[in-house]
Amino acid sequence: MANPSLRVDVHHITRVEGHGNIVVDVQNGQLKQCDLEIVETPRFFEAMLKGRPYAEASHISSRICGICAVGHATASLRATEKALGVEPSEQTVLLRKLNFHGEILDSHILHAYMLVAPDALGVGSVIPLAKTAPDVVLRALRMKKLAGDLCAAICGRHTHPIAMTVGGFSHYPTTAVLQALRDRLVAVRADVDATIELFQKLKLPAFERDTEYIALHKDDEYCFIDGRIVSTDGGDWPIEKYREVTNEFLVPHSTAKRTKNQRPSYMVGALARFNVNYAQLHPKAKEAARALNLSPKCVNPYLNTVAQVVEIVHCVEDSIELADRLLKTGVTWRSPVQPPRLTGEGVGACEVPRGTLFHNYVIQDGWISGANCIIPTGQNLQNIELDMRALVPTILDKNQQEITLALEMLVRAYDPCISCSTHMLNVRFE
Amino acid sequence: MSPALPAPTLILALGNPDRGDDGVGQAVLHELAQRGGLPDDVEVLDGGLAGLETCLFLQDRRRALIVDAADMGLAPGEWRALEVGDPRLANERRPGGLHDAGLQEALQLAAALDTLPECVTIFGVQPQSIEWGLGLSRPVAQAVPGVGAAIQEWILQDKDGYGDGEDPDHR
After folding, report:
1. What is the pLDDT confidence band of residue B167, given thresholds at 50, 70 and 90?
2. CB-hemisphere CA count at 13 Å for A345?
3. Residue A28 has pLDDT above 60, yes or no
4. Which chain A residue shows the shortest CA-CA distance from B59?
5. Sign of CA dihedral B158, B162, B165, B171
6. Which of A146, A254, B133, B153 has its CA 20 to 30 A from that of A211?
7. A157 in contact with chain B, both atoms CB, cutoff 8 A
């Protein structure tokens, strides 16, 4: 064995959002320690929401994340709407779905192209990738810009949306804007095909560890908003019962809470959605999955990025269909639905890029008196750590640099958003 | 379907007007609109918090002038003409971070992509405060007409930069 004793200590892992460390300690071939330390300061958003009027909640909570701002706003609005008995119109539901696809696309493209592809192509970051393959990076930027423009057209701006409100929208895209976006979505299919071709060529590690995969599910669509909580281990919960699934707990080396359900850990995110909701994927996304050799149930966490590529196909195709439906009926100005009551409790749930997000609010006389938010990365942390503990003994024949890279790539595969979960990465070999 | 080439000269404002003096770029665009008389081959764009997509704004241009707030340790309202690579453009909070990439990361990426215009000048204006809140501080608001005048001169003279100073006449 090449490494009878080994200490890995990555202090602040790069190409992830937020600060975390990987610490691995192997002594005489025995794994003594393998931790994912979360060292971000907790951010106390739930406390900030308390005492605020209900209409401010989505604007405050969208600040939890600059990447998933639409996701947080949507989960927040659904929690408020359920608490206050608001039923959004079909037009609102369609616009929210289209808006949501824009954010999923933006985040997945950034992760797949800028954060994961450099590892798989053996370059240190996107800058050398831009020098050796400028067409690849320019394609990513084009696709990202379309995703951002899609969000901006519907919710005013992508980062921290301003037009999303309880019961509807305060701004609507014109027919001309919607038609132009629809045309650009059709035109971007060539870039999507090129993305599939790129990821067919990329070699990702062949590590496998079976775990519980959890995602929101609807029988009639690939679910991103609302639905029920479903597990690959069996089990189906209404989202109001989310605490029975998340079972939050603390570990000493992390400022973020961990979660577990029917096993010691579970996974959320693109791969979990793919495993739970494969049947509901758009036919073209299923074609892409076949081309990428991805089939459910996939238990290689490194392939979360490949599942993201499949979702890119799904979101582009579904966006075109949503735009067609909206163009057919015509988007018309409608005042947001007003709440029939001002007191109640509600849970909103969405599948944001990194997995299942829950917002739970208690509202009294229009003021938020209690809030609980459970973020996808927090749900994945325990699963990442258990993956690391399973992976390290299988790669001890590699040198320290290779082991460090394998661990960093594993963490990055989850596309973690550590700032949001504390509410990662730095590998320390010791 | 190939899109038409963009205007050869770009005036790009970056920044968030909800954060006090970070809105100086947008205020300068407003100043330029009031002054009028920009040549037809000049496009004026509010890039907001564009991040890496700034590369796409710069692509296929001959020259670009970017206006943004920059903490250079100067008196509030003083401004400098900076070159690409100037360390004063660094994203101090997250150097090299791609989740919240700033102007320096976008310029690095554009250089690697070989899509930087021949001439790129950044007019960095020293903010007094970029805390949450609308409106510019008095010294930064007072600097805006001078920055507008300098940009007009930059366009007309087709120059690639200015010396340091609050007032281009003092350079």
Report:
1. very low
2. 9
3. yes
4. A138
5. negative
6. A254
7. yes
Question: CA of A123 to nearest chain B CA: how many angstroms apart?
Answer: 13
CB distance B98–A157 less than 8 Å?
no
Contacts of B108 in chain A (CB under 8 A): 127
Q: CA torsion, points B91, B30, B161, B15, in degrees to nearest 10?
A: 0
Which of A17, A130, A142 is nearest residue B109 as measured by Cβ atoms? A130
Domain count, chain A: 1
Chain B positions touching A187 (Cβ under 8 A) are 1
Report ipTM for this prediction: 0.74
> Does A49 map to a domain?
yes
- Is the pLDDT reported for residue A4 higher than 70? no
Range of the domain at A388: 6-429
- Structural domains in chain B, sorted by start: 9-170 (3.40.50.1450)
Burial B119-148, CB ≥16 within 10 A → b, else e: bbbbbbbbbbebeeeeebbebbeebbebbb
**Which residue of chain A is at minimal alpha-carbon distance from B100?**
A66
Whether residue A296 lies inside any domain: the answer is yes
**pLDDT digit string, tens, across residues A193-233:** 999 999 999 989 999 999 999 999 999 999 999 999 999 99
- pLDDT band for A421, please (50, 70, 90 cuts): very low
pTM, full prediction: 0.87
In a domain, A1, yes or no: no
Say yes or no: B1 contacts chain A, CB-CB below 8 A: yes
| Distance of residue B19 Cα from the nearest chain A Cα, in angstroms | 14
CATH of the domain at A49: 1.10.645.10
B98 contacts A126? CB cut-off 8 A: yes
Q: How far apart are CA B168 and CA B147, in angstroms?
A: 8
Is residue A377 a part of any domain in this protein? yes
Residue type, A126: V
Q: Do B98 and A110 lie within an 8 Å CB cutoff?
A: yes
Is A425 in contact with A381 (CB distance < 8 Å)? Answer: no
Under the banding of pLDDT at 50, 70 and 90, the label for residue B165 is very low
CB contact under 8 A, A127 and B48: no
Considering only CB atoms, which chain A residues are within 8 Å of B97?
A: 17
